[in-house]
Amino acid sequence: MVSLTRESARLTLPQPRSTTVTPPQRFNPSPLESGATLTVDLQAIVANWRMLAAGVGTARCAAVVKADAYGCGIEEVVPALAAAGADTFFVAHGSEGIRARAVAPDATIYVLNGLPPGASVTMLAGGLLPVLGSMAEIEEWAQQGEGGAAALHIDTGMNRLGLNLEEAAVVAKRHAQAQLGFQPSLIMSHLACADEPESPLNAIQLARFRAVRALFPDVAASLANSAATHQSGDWCFDLCRPGIALYGGTPYASLPNPMLPVVSLASRIIQLRDAAAGETVGYGARQRLTRPTRLAILSTGYADGYLRLAGSSDDRSGAEAIVNGKRCPLVGRVSMDLIAIDVTEAGALTRGDYACLIGQGITVDEVAAHAETIGYEVLTSLGKRYHRVYVRA
Ligand SMILES: *Cc1c(COP(=O)(O)O)cnc(C)c1O
User: Fold this and answer.
1) CA of 180 to the centre of ligand 1 (A)
2) Whose CA is closest to atom 3 on ligand 1?
3) What is the pTM of this model?
4) Could you tell me the CA-to-CA distances from 71 to 66, 154, 243 in Å, in that order?
5) Which pLDDT band, with edges at 50, 70 and 90, does 25 fall under?
6) Which atom number of ligand 1 is nearest to the Cα of residue 188?
7) pLDDT digits (tens, 9 = 90+) for 306-355
8) Is there a contact between 269 and 349 (Cβ–Cβ < 8 Å)?
9) Which of 97, 107, 234, 360 is most deeply buried (CB count within 10 A of its CB)?
10) Pocket residues for ligand 1 (CB within 6 Å)?
11) What is d(CA 121, CA 14) in angstroms, rounded to the nearest whole number?
12) From the CA atom positions of the chain, what is the Rg in Å?
């Protein structure tokens, strides 16, 4: 395979015809008006991106910023990464693309969820490149896309979005005969089991993707998400698409996480109270105290995206918080706006102190494990009521 330089012609794109869009103002209540402070470390996101970008050889490293940059904030994350050298971003929806465009006028922005019927207007106005994932989308873009560039999504085994292999061959033929109606700027596919390196599906998808890629010799190719970017080598092709690893989530469930943590969440203690052994705590009375217990009531709940399943009961212990450097278990269910923790061992505390729910060694993946989910869901659920602080370069 020909190795490509960073200046590869394959990655040269027509300039997006961007309209002027004003970024929306984020609602950011003051600490006095909010239950918790969420700190997003943009320096750590940039360091994570640089670490990944340094490991992908001649490929380039894009950044996936869908779902409000995994809860971290498109308006803040995109300019930080653009300043560090990222020039290609992936979002899921047109609305996210427009937000990214407002803060990154020169970037290449791909919309992963493709082209909803009639949406060519938005794509063209925002200078967004749809990732076309079906023959219907390809035909609509050929007619309404004004010849603009777009990516082609090939399904190699996930059965979610993308052309099947026969359709890809048909499109390749049209492209070779200059009858496609637009210039594909990228062919891409997505791995179903990248976080399980031992899964046989990975090699199957890689072989299928290589075969399709050979049909589009003049088009850049992209396969790798965070986990596959980490493995570098075979998976990287011309462009990598990491998401979760940028935000400090673990690329692999089973291995130590090499990424820097990005978010921390400090929740205000709004009450301290003592409860006797034998009492229960919270909705459903699911946890009975086995000793006299000092409880701290935190002003954060599932309405803030702190997942309800991370709560605790007599049958199943839940997540923890850190207070004065001590691990303090959650007690009882997570309420909509409140959480109780056991601070009996945490030393002197006063009303208004903070408890750390994420950070100081509590990772998003740890919280996720207690809630029977993945770090992605913890991040993308991060609430809208928090006082937000951004650590900038
Ligand atoms: C979300 C997404 C990514 C990023 O995946 P991570 O596992 O977060 O790195 C890459 N490609 C596609 C198509 C995606 O939907």
Assistant:
1) 27
2) 225
3) 0.93
4) 9, 27, 11
5) confident
6) 13
7) 999 999 999 999 999 999 999 999 999 999 999 999 999 999 999 999 99
8) yes
9) 97
10) 64, 66, 112, 190, 225-226, 241-245
11) 17
12) 24
Position in ligand 1 atom list of the atom nearest CA 161: 13
Q: Are 311 and 281 in contact (CB under 8 A)?
A: no
219 is written with which tokens?
Answer: 């088009």
What is the dihedral angle through the alpha carbons of 168, 169, 172, 177, rounded to the nearest 10 degrees? Answer: -140
**What is the 3-state secondary structure of the chain?**
CCCCCCCCHHHCCCCCCCCCCCCCCCCCCCHHHCCEEEEEEHHHHHHHHHHHHHCCCCCEECEECHHHHHCCCHHHHHHHHHHHCCCEEEECCHHHHHHHHHHCCCCEEEECCCCCCCCHHHHHHHCEEEEECCHHHHHHHHHHCCCCCEEEEECCCCCCCCECHHHHHHHHHHHHCCCCCCCEEEEECCCCCCCCCCCHHHHHHHHHHHHHHHHCCCCEEECCCHHHHHHCHHHCCCEECCCHHHHCCCCCCCCCCCCCCCEEEEEEEEEEEEECCCCEECHHHCEECCCCEEEEEECCCHHHCCCHHHCCCCCCCCCEEEECCEEEEECCCCCCCCEEEECCCCCCCCCCCEEEEEECCECHHHHHHHCCCCHHHHHHCCCCCCEEEEECC
- What is the average pLDDT value for the chain, to the nearest integer? 94
* Token duo for residue 177: 């005969």
Cα four-point dihedral sign 15, 20, 24, 25: positive
Q: What is the 28 CA–ligand 1 centroid distance (Å)?
A: 28
Q: Which are the catalytic amino acids?
A: 66, 283
Among 320, 330, 346, 328, residue whose Cα is nearest residue 287: 330
pLDDT digits (tens, 9 = 90+) for 43-87: 999 999 999 999 999 999 999 999 999 999 999 999 999 999 999
Q: Whose CA is nearest to atom 10 of ligand 1?
A: 225
